Amino acid sequence: MTTIEKSQKKPAGLRWPRNETPARAAWEEEPSLTVKAAKSATLIVVVLAVLLPLYTIVLTSLSSQSTITNAGGLVIIPGEISWDAYRQIFTGGVVTRAIMVSVGITAVGTILSMVVSVLCAYGLSRPGTLAHTPLLFVLLITMFFAAGMIPSYLLVSGLGMIDSYAALILPSCISVFNIIILRGFFMGIDQGILDSARIDGASEWRILAQIVMPMSKAVTAVIALFYGVGYWNAFFNAILYINESSKNPLQVVLRSYVLQGVSVPGQIAVGQGVAASLALQMAVIVVAMVPILFVYPFVQKHFTKGVMIGAVKG
Amino acid sequence: MSTLLKTDTDAVTGNGAPGGRADSTKTRNKSKLAPGVRSSLGLKARFRRDKSLIFMTLPAVLLLAVFAYVPIMGNIVAFQDYSPFVGIANSPWVGLDNFARVLSDSNFWVAVKNTLVITAFQLFFFFPIPIVLAILLNSLVRPSLRATIQAIVYLPHFFSWVLVVAVFQQILGGAGLLNQQLLAHGWQGLDIMTNPDTFLFLITSQSIWKDAGWGMIVFLAALNAIDPSQYEAAAVDGANRWSRMWHITLPGLRPVIILLLILRLGDSLSVGFEQLILQRDAVGAGASEVLDTFVYYTGVQNGDWSYAAAAGLLKGLVSLALILGANKIAHLFGEAGVYSKK
């Protein structure tokens, strides 16, 4: 919550002066009390529907064995707080390994995706350049016709990439969607600036690195978030291409522990309390959630700036 | 060719969307002048001038060639009796046999039926919610409150399906929070997560929880683009709140609504693959088998590669026809659609 507020960068705007009623246009009638009440009730329900499940899951992951037993399951009212569950899943074992796999895939994948996408988007951002139309066409066709799962699987297995981390990165490395959004943004940059750099003898590489990129921080951040979230959340590619359980990313482990009821193993250090199995499960959920909660507020503020419209509209 | 070209610039700048439109239309017009001027150069000179730009696109083109185009050609296994041991080159050709088998398979038709039912159900119950939410949120006067609620409801969109299903299971599952409370107060527990009869409602509510907030973003943008003086003029003429919504707000949203409907129609054969595969064990294949899971289980799990590829290829071709058809319909209604022939 606090992070979200920070991201607005308008601390003053958040605390609306109590005595000052927000501006409603002079011609606009004040809504009736019923309308107002119905509106606020709906919004409160919507917000709670998102936040309550997350709240109880985080709280349960932090609760001690006895608190969970007393609650009879998920904890709503905070009781005794215990970090045992996190201690247990972070001291080696399957979850720790899966976290490392997911972090690695996400970091390497996002960087690779961004480099390839930004280059491609800039390369296609000047209509009229040689081969511009055919190249764009090559990209766009893939948005209308997807190859299908079976040939993709046969290809990846034919390349000997089954059980390799590359199988989690390369097939999903670029999204034409994201490239088109980036391209749209690059095309919107004032060409006069770029032309003057060209006249001064700057190469396209240098223009991209020193002029275009610094002007495109917001859109780059949003697209990087999309790619990063995609890699972090990748589940299907993993069950398709990864058989070795030691290479499973976090989402697959989350599925087996929480949805399929496999009990969470963990190394219990001497002298530490044993975490409740429910707390362990919830801790795995929280771990899968935290990176998104952490990055999201920094990028969220850019969503409404128009860069997003292309993404949703496709 | 030019039809597709139009697509992307339109999609990105977003007709009727404020932010993108304002800063890109100007330069788009400018860059449109460029091609005529530039193509007067010879091919060699143009290559020399543009070679770094072309090189920049190569990594992406290469990745697409390998991971998108090679598999598209790999669909020929649908016309073979493919065996992984002999490979594509040596597998016998069987013509359209696989397609005949697929079309006479009752399990395939169950998957088709489920897919279409889920799409129709979600179109009816899911699709209007982001619109309503956007109008509701747009009516809030305080920008800070609006921004906070927006930030909260967008959030679940970024969670994985595994996470969403896990959260639902913890809240609504047999041992979840809801049943825990019901049982504690002497009520009967509910069987939500494993009941095939209510599965449609379950997956739709999951989709709503995850994506309704995010779906709102494009409608909010469209609402922003409506000229406020229209409202003022209507109010001065005596139109009340509801008639202003009917005559100004909804017409303002119409192009976006139609565009998203087209996209959804073109996508109607893809329904939350991960979401369904995660819950197939719990509710059984009868209720949860859709085209994608059908392909996965017959192909990857049972090794009937050619058969599954045939089913997948059918799906791809019908989807292509749907998106082109939906776009055609949009043109007939005088809307821009996903791409246009200007």
Residue runs with pLDDT of under 50 for 5 or more positions of chain A: 1-17, 306-314
Cα distance spanning the termini of chain A: 31 Å
Mean pLDDT of chain A: 83
Beta strands of chain B, count = 0
Q: How do the helices and strands follow one another from N- to C-terminus of chain B?
A: HHHHHHHHHHHHHHHHH
Number of domains of chain B: 2
- Name the structural class of chain B: mainly alpha
Examine the secondary-structure arrangement and name the CATH architecture of the largest domain in chain B: Orthogonal Bundle
Helix-and-strand structural type of chain A: mainly alpha
What is the percentage of strand-forming residues of chain B?
under 5%
Could you walk me through the main structural features you see in this protein, from its secondary elements to its overall organization?
- The complex is a heterodimer of chains A (314) and B (342).
- Chain A has 314 residues and is mostly helical.
- Chain A has two domains: 33-82, no CATH class; 88-273 and 280-313, MetI-like fold (Orthogonal Bundle).
- Helices cover 66% and strands 0% of the residues of chain A.
- Chain A has 17 helices and no strands.
- The two termini of chain A are 31 Å apart.
- Chain B is an all-alpha fold and 342 residues long.
- Chain B has two domains: 1-34, no CATH class; 97-332, MetI-like (MetI-like fold, Orthogonal Bundle).
- Chain B contains 17 helices and no strands.
- Chain B has helices at residues 2-13, 18-38, 43-74, 87-90, 97-103, 106-125, 128-138, 143-154, 161-172, 177-184, 199-224, 228-236, 241-266, 273-283, 285-288, 291-301, 305-332.
- In chain B, helix 5 packs across helix 17 (305-332).
- The model of chain B is unreliable at 1-36 (pLDDT under 50).
- The chains are: A mainly alpha (314), B mainly alpha (342).
